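Schema walk-through. Below, the input block comes first and the output block second. Nothing else is stored per chain. Lengths vary across the set, and this one has 267 residues.
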Amino acid sequence: MLEPVLPLWSTHTWWSHLLWTVLLFLLAWLVYRLSSRLADRLLHVGRLSKQGRQMRPERYQTLHNLIASMIAFLAFLTAFILTLSQFVRVETLIWMVGLFSAAFGLGARPLISDFLTGISFLFEDPFDVGDKVELLQVEGVVERVNLRTTMLRAPSGELLVVPNGEIRLVRNFSRGLFSPATITLKLAASDLPQALLVLESLGKEAVILLPNLVEPWRIISESGEMGQQTELTLLAKARFGMGAEMRPRLLALVHERLQEAGIQLAD
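--- output ---
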């Protein structure tokens, strides 16, 4: 004859359950405290597996934060599940976890979306710590990336906490290939033919004179109108982040060459 199965609470004292629960969450807390070092170890092993391939410091910091937060989340989740396993059978626990997951998935879809997007950042590289980006129509510098949120420092100084699940479009100013250094000139219509010759020749020479200029500029007329005066626009590309610094240098160079050719800028 089979012996009846006694409930779990009748075979163990409550204090032992409490002690085991405290121990589990203490271990989870220790893992949380060590998550930064564990993330360093994992990233170190990952770099060795890539045959010493160098990783950008910004990318390393981003992955470090994501992995550390994932380790901490898994540690507390494991402690919670093991605590429940003391009071219910394995079959019941599986059923409860499945039911809880379904209910949680319906009631906390934004939170799940945040975590899933954070996990995707481990494999994708839309931005890194230190990048200047635009998220949700707000510009700022990325200070920290966690599994659930991205912390953005706005130009006005405040810290914005952006849920990862709401990030759909990323405008990364730190990944540009060039910065615009466009300048506009106003000339007398009678000087236009000679000015075009001077500017076209100077555009090729400017790449040598100004190393931060990516390529010769293009000359366009945005209005397409001509009267006593006409307006020309020089579409110049500077190395990324050097656009504002290049504009006064371009203006000085163009003004000098036009004066040497006897061409005066219109008022």
